[in-house]
Please model this.
Amino acid sequence: MAWTYLIIAGLLEIVWAYFMKQSDGFTRLWPSVATLVFMGASFGLLALAMKSLPMGSAYMVWTGIGAVGAFIVGVVFLQEHLSLLRVLAALLIVGGIVLMRLAPAQ
Model:
């Protein structure tokens, strides 16, 4: 169940990052509220996952899902710049997550 919590926490990190962008520096009320709600839910699920997962693995996967997901959302929905180097950077993050997941937790 911990990995499920962790994946959902990572997906919620993408959501709060999007709403943080929409909040315009916390100057718009509802996007700011959404940022805080989704941030709290993401942190809460991360904390639940860390009860049984190693901290380093959990945190790396959480931030990796958030970073790559936010990159994709930025490109797809916010028309942010897409380049070969940015895609390569995202793939390296995904590769790191996969290697962390495959590595023994000893």
